[in-house]
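Incident review: delayed structure delivery

Summary: a single-chain prediction request sat in the queue longer than the usual turnaround. Root cause was a stuck worker, restarted by the on-call engineer. No data loss occurred. The affected request and its eventual output are reproduced below so the record is complete for anyone auditing the incident later.

Affected input:
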Amino acid sequence: MLLEHLIQDFATLQVHGRLQRQVRALTYHSGQASEESLFVAIKGTQSDGHEFVHQAIDRGAQTIVVEKPQEPISGITVIRVANSRAALAHIASRFYGFPSHKLTVVGITGTNGKTTTAYLLESILQACGHRVGVIGTVNIRYPGHVQPAPVTTPESLDLQQTFKQMVDAGVTHVVMEVSSHGLDMHRVDCTRFAVGLFTNLSQDHLDYHGSMENYFAAKSRLFSHILQTQVEPPPLAVINWDDRWGQQLCSQVNGPLLRYGLAADAEIRADKVQCDSSGVKALLHTPKGQLEVHSAMIGRLNLYNLLAATSVAVGLGMPLEAIRNGEQSLVRVPGRLEAVPSDLGFQVLVDYAHTPDALQKALDSLRELEFRKIICVFGCGGDRDRSKRPLMGEAAAQRADLLVITSDNPRSEVPDTIMADIEAGVRTQGLPLFSSLAQCGDNCKRGYTLVVDRSEAIRVAIEHAQEGDVVYIGGKGHENYQILGNKRIDFDDRLVAAQALEERKKKEAS
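Output delivered after worker restart:
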């Protein structure tokens, strides 16, 4: 494609060199530059692409897009822009032929519930006979293709390339998780959304955003900027009306809007709610009529995921019967209150909750199911928002019976330091500290212990559980790795728990 066409309708600050040249490839990694490619220098968290401009040129790049002033380079076209990431999104969308315009794209943003809601929507759309693609935390997938997802929302170039691949594979609908980082870094700019969904907002990523107000501003950008740039057809905003940030967001929406929740004035609302060990049952009221749902996914938190998915599906014109069938056919979501099979009389659940609000809602859901005792295994990630650690400790101490505080992904931090931050919140609730759960005894009702090694922490919890209990393992969910220092090791809570259950079963049988 001609360079002048790629930058058409995008404001540039300065251009050195000719625009009448072919561009055969795009990249933001200098090491991936090739003959007649265009290299966009973007500033990352670890390095700055502007430092690798000449490396990209040495590999064949003939067009360079930069933010920082750059001296003219003989034979090279240098384009300076106000924001390299915004330019990358614009250029990538044009280069791949505006692929999102050929798809029905649903963007899901919010702190919690994105992944489960994406799975529900995928199931509903498949029940309607559509070919569906999903871009999210667990993976990127569409019929005949699955690949790992290194980040929740891919860089704009990778995203547009994925859209193009989906179009070529016959995909009609795409459900994608849109992270606050992705919005703030312009990754979804120039993506045409049919629907934008807001699930909720609670404390997370403050190490990046600095404040809840900045975090909300990043999330709301999907509605205040991305959706607002689209005119025909007008995109639909679907917002959790029970969430206080959602109520604030509704005031920013100028186009079509559907609100969901338990509030009587929500367009899509639930009543006759029943949550038990068999799942969630509810009667949903929608503009298209009433819908009885029964999902195998447990917990009141999943009621909101069902409401969110139903609202989007209704907004897209999906038949109520197909919505019901799609929701009922989904029995599990990887690492979201996912059960590890156990025949020892107690349940083991693995969950991705890694924020105070998510942990609180998960434990509240389990409390509602009236387990004999909730044993909670959790930690917090290193090199991330420290302020949420005591809040998570406090939330767990208020709702669980026994806590096993352990490592999550400590990264470069000392695990003991992270655990001490969590413990500060636990202590506010007056829980006694035990050197081990064995010291606590089988009849101990409340308390906590510290176990640095995560696999040992899971084993200790499962060893202590009795009939009627639930062992809740929070924080990592579907992840199959643990980050220790600069090393990434194989680690899966579900596999570790299954092994611990098998060891206990053999021990009891001997």
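Verification: The longest helix spans residues 493-509.
Action items: add queue-age alerting; document worker restart procedure.
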